[in-house]
């Protein structure tokens, strides 16, 4: 089993959209049932991208509070991906869940082990933006950390903080790989192009050679509760996600 944690240091960069659409692209490569997505973001939006009912009541948050395994909350989508929603939770439930995560640093790793996923399966985990007990859990068990950025000054300003986190984690997890992903690129906008070049110079080989272009089809697909590969398989973003899946599957398979 390979674990990819999708993170960002700021909100609004399209992290959840990347997680879902990348997972569907990977499932197209590996086959139905070989890719799972886990929503560890209290915003609970990941399942919407995979066509799962917005009123879905399954919840890994509440399952954790009941001290039960994930088996009861795994929802199969019609796009070849299994989803584990964060679920609708009250503020007190969220706080209690986060207390568990703080007290049990290996909680996520244990849950992944108990799911019984196969050795060739891939799990993508969507994290809330910024430092959190959720991200600490992800750092502990990830094989690959995918950090989503926009080609703008706001994202550029967060790199130093993320690099500091990665350096600290590397002391315990020298095997952890990390890749930065530029999302929503628009070559027609000069500032976008310029900031993209700044990011390439700053990150070098740590920046994925495959980025995701800005494409209205991604937002339109979400409105129809579909991943973009199914909504408009010929669009630029769909091709980008397919190329990104191929690029990332190589290192996680090693």
Keywords:
alpha/beta; Rossmann fold; 254 residues; seven-stranded mixed β-sheet; 44% helix
Structure overview:
With 254 residues, this protein is an alpha/beta fold. It has a single domain (2-253), classed as 3-Layer(aba) Sandwich (Rossmann fold), CATH 3.40.50.300. It is 44% helix and 13% strand. The chain has helices at residues 15-30, 60-65, 91-103, 107-114, 133-141, 153-156, 159-170, 190-203, 216-223, 228-231, 236-253; strands spanning 2-7, 35-39, 75-76, 81-84, 122-126, 144-149, 177-182. A seven-stranded mixed β-sheet has the order 3-4-2-5-1-6-7, with helices on both faces. A hairpin with a 4-residue loop joins strand 3 (75-76) and strand 4 (81-84). The N and C termini lie close together (11 Å). The mean pLDDT is 91.
Give the secondary structure arrangement, pairings included.
Elements lengths: L1 E6 L7 H16 L4 E5 L20 H6 L9 E2 L4 E4 L6 H13 L3 H8 L7 E5 L6 H9 L2 E6 L3 H4 L2 H12 L6 E6 L7 H14 L12 H8 L4 H4 L4 H18 L1
Parallel strand pairs: 1-5, 1-6, 2-4, 2-5, 6-7
Antiparallel strand pairs: 3-4
Which band does the percent of strand residues land in? 5-15%
Instruction: Enter the CATH topology name.
Output: Rossmann fold
Fraction in helix: 40-55%
Task: Quickly name the level 1 CATH class.
Answer: Alpha Beta
By CATH, the superfamily comes out as P-loop containing nucleotide triphosphate hydrolases
| Strand line-up across the major sheet | 3-4-2-5-1-6-7
């Amino acid at each position: 089993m390979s674990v990819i944690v999708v993170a960002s240091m700021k909100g609004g960069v399209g992290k959840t959209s990347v997680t879902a659409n990348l997972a569907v692209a990977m499932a197209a490569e590996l086959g139905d049932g070989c890719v799972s997505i886990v929503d560890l973001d209290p915003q609970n939006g990941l399942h919407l991208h995979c066509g799962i009912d917005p009123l879905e009541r399954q919840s890994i948050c509440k399952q954790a509070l009941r001290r039960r395994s994930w088996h009861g909350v795994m929802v199969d989508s019609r796009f070849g991906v299994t989803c584990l929603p964060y679920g609708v939770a009250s503020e007190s439930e969220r706080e209690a869940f986060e207390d568990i995560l703080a007290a049990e640093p290996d909680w996520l790793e244990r849950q992944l082990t108990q799911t019984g996923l196969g050795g060739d399966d891939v799990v993508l985990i969507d994290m809330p933006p910024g430092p959190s007990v959720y991200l600490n859990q992800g750092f502990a068990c990830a094989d690959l950390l995918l950090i989503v950025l926009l080609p703008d000054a706001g994202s550029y300003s967060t790199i130093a903080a993320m690099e500091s986190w990665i350096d600290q984690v590397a002391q315990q997890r020298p095997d952890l790989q990390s890749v930065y992903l530029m999302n929503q690129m628009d070559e027609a906008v000069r500032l976008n192009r310029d900031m993209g070049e700044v990011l390439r110079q700053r990150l070098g080989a740590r920046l994925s050679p495959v980025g995701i272009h800005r494409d209205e089809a991604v937002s339109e697909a979400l409105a129809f509760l579909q991943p973009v590969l199914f909504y408009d398989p010929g669009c630029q973003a769909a091709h980008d996600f397919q190329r990104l899946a191929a690029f990332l599957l190589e290192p996680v398979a090693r």
